[in-house]
Design goal:
This protein is 39% helix and 16% strand. The protein is α/β, with parallel strands linked by helices. It has a 6-stranded mixed beta sheet with strand order 9-8-7-10-13-14, with helices on both faces. A two-stranded antiparallel ribbon has the order 1-2. It has a two-stranded antiparallel ribbon with strand order 3-6. Helix 10 links the parallel strand 7 and strand 8.
Length: 417
């Protein structure tokens, strides 16, 4: 006997889909760094990777294969797929994403538009361009927030305050023992200690004479501000060898930006990409960056990072470097770039370590997160950490976020004033 399975009727399925969950499921596609195109996924020959057709295919995959919905909604989606109504559903979802400000859609080029030069209706000489989409700043900000939430959830914590150090200072919030007042201290008097000192000196008599040497003030934990430059290796090796290493690095950078804005408002974060050379990039443009066939000019990245940190008036200055390759290029005095694809070229290594020494003299700490365990890279990074008293982490694209955020939030650095 044939059985008929009935499911709950949903009048407008597109309205039942949570755009927040959908954006989360699409994060790898929206932040794609070139790796997926290499494998052919969502990629159509002759069309750019930002084409609307690619977005449609990614949404179709998310709706059919992800665990975003309950069983009833999944049954409805599968039914629409079987009945040929999936395209209409995807169009409605894309319209909602545009209305909510997650993406912007550029209309396709009209080949019959009025030519601005000929002044008549006719087919444009250029080839028709398909519709395109672009993730908005709101969409990128949302992806950074969701990444941060997921990373903090994996750490078992919800919120964090500012950076604690081993130093103590006088302030309003007390958290330590009192100390004798010194010129320049905040006048947050410890009344009990001050009166006790005066009584021990003069005895219990009225009026009680309090002298300068009797003054005690409360101490509080000294909390400092930090200037950070995040150096991302975008050489071609970051998407080679069957693994996308650059997209997780981009996600971590976006999460770190969210963390600083919400929990450490006194801190600053700058972004440097290093490849054949190095360039500073606004964090708002990070998600749109892709890797390229570049070498690894670590020295130029360190030089640019130092120039950025020199502009910052912060107690703590650090460089966070994410890399998977050995230094393989340096910029020569005449502007030419010397390259050695095999890495660990004596001239490249020596000039790079000279730049590390300059960081040490400037009081800049370098913390390195390695996405590879190549022996040559390990030896180079160990030398960097020895010179700069920084840390080195052997991690993977899957654990990079936990390591980096935990280090940023729990690092306690002694600051000399």
């Amino acid at each position: 006997m044939k059985r008929v399975k009935y499911s709950k009727y949903i009048p407008n399925l597109a309205e039942e889909i949570s755009l927040d969950d959908l954006m989360d499921a699409l994060s790898d596609f929206l932040l794609e760094s070139g790796f997926e195109s290499e494998l052919g996924r969502y990629y159509k020959p002759g069309a750019g990777d930002d084409q609307l057709d690619a977005l449609r295919e990614a949404i179709r995959d998310a709706l059919l294969n992800s665990d975003l919905f309950d069983e009833e909604v999944r049954d409805q989606i599968q039914l629409m797929q079987d009945n040929g109504g999936m395209d209409d559903l995807i169009d409605e979802v894309i319209s909602r994403m545009e209305e909510d400000g997650f993406v912007t859609i550029s209309p396709p080029h009209d080949p019959t538009r009025i030519s601005s030069t000929a002044g008549s209706v006719g087919r444009d000489q250029s080839q028709s361009r398909p519709a395109k989409f672009e993730v908005t700043d709101k969409g990128l900000d949302f992806l950074g927030y969701r990444t941060l939430r997921d990373l903090l959830g994996s750490l078992g914590r919800a919120s964090f305050g500012r950076h604690d150090t081993r130093d103590t200072a006088t302030g309003i919030e007390t958290s330590g023992s009192s100390k004798l007042y010194e010129f320049g201290d905040t006048m947050n008097l410890d009344i009990n200690a001050t009166l006790s000192s005066a009584i021990r000196r003069e005895g219990l008599a009225l009026p009680l004479q309090i002298e300068y040497s009797d003054l005690h003030v409360h101490q509080c934990e000294y909390q400092s501000s930090c200037a950070t430059v995040l150096m991302l290796d975008c050489s071609h090796s970051m998407i080679l060898y069957g693994e996308d290493r650059f997209t997780p690095a981009k996600k971590v950078a976006m999460a770190l930006s969210q963390l600083i804005r919400t929990q450490y408002p006194g801190d600053t974060l700058s972004l440097v990409l290093f490849h054949d050379s190095a360039e500073e990039l606004p964090l708002s443009q990070l998600a749109r960056v892709r890797v390229g066939p570049y070498y690894t000019n670590t020295r130029e990245g360190l030089r640019l990072a130092q120039r950025i940190l020199q502009r910052q008036r912060k107690d703590m200055k650090q460089i966070i470097m994410i890399t998977d390759g050995k230094p393989s290029a340096v910029t020569l005095p005449d502007g030419r770039i010397y390259k050695n694809a095999f890495g660990l070229d004596p001239m490249v290594v020596s000039q790079t370590l000279e730049e590390v020494a300059k960081c040490k003299r400037a009081g800049v700490m370098i913390n390195t997160f390695m996405l590879a365990s190549d022996r040559g890279l390990v030896q180079f990074v160990q030398k960097v950490t020895e010179m700069c008293r920084g840390k080195a982490y052997f991690t993977t694209p899957y654990t990079l976020g936990q390591y980096l955020l935990m280090d940023y939030m729990s690092r306690k650095t002694k600051t000399v004033h």
